[in-house]
Protein: Protease HtpX homolog
Organism: Streptomyces fuscichromogenes
Amino acid sequence: MQSRFRSDRRLTVRMTVTLFLLGLLYVGFVAALIVLLKSWLLVVVLVGAMFVAQFWFSDRIAMFAMRGRVVEREEYPELHAVVDRLCAIADMPKPVVAVSEMDMPNAFATGRNPDHAVVCVTTGLLRRLDPAELEGVLAHELSHVAHKDVAVITVASFLGVIAGLIVRFAFYSQLFGGGRRDQNTAAVFAAVIGVSAAVYAISFLLIRALSRYRELAADRAAAHLTGRPSALASALTKVSGDIARIPTKDLRTAQAFNAFYFTPATGKEPGIERIFSTHPTLEQRLEQLGRISAELGEAATPGKAG
């Protein structure tokens, strides 16, 4: 079913191209592993099992890692009311609503499709935002579900996860047992590491590029659905500023899930490493919301928090 979130053809094209390129990379990666390891059954079974596990259980994995728990209407009536209202306006199924007991102000959406989705907010976010700002953040997250880019990011990240795990396994294997290999085994070992590292690097860059664009697309869709881009801009300004004040050691656990967050858990704006960032800069996001605010005839107040 098509939701009332504004469709984004450029996002759809980018998701299609990214999945196509990663699909080619995936086929090449599996073929290379089969040739190097000389066991197609082992490679196909392992890679296939991990893909199914990540795709079907991605929401549970993310919820477990971020200490999120499903909450009922009786416990968080205002949060449920905002989600209910937005889903009614957008004409989309209501996702499972969850809360994470973290002081870091943030939110994320996950799930393989709109009928199996979860929207999770942290208690730190709920404490800091007013109702209009919270509505903007939740509209942003719901647009990820409606555009299906959550599922695309989940599938797209699979190849990089596999390649990264192989590199780590190979590293520790070399560290603790490297002296017991003959020359042939060592050559195959090195080739597997090389192929995995290359695949990880390429998939990493492709996913980051898609992730940055999908965040801008979600901001646009949320601003048009709520009609209040300035409230979303205010939430962005407030959340980004508060995350910057949280000690880096408290953000490290969350950084693995940056691609799914409303704002990245880095505590700083990307500089020269912008190409590796999961999100566009705060300035880019506020500038876009300012333009939408002008188009809608709303008084733009992106720097004002609440």
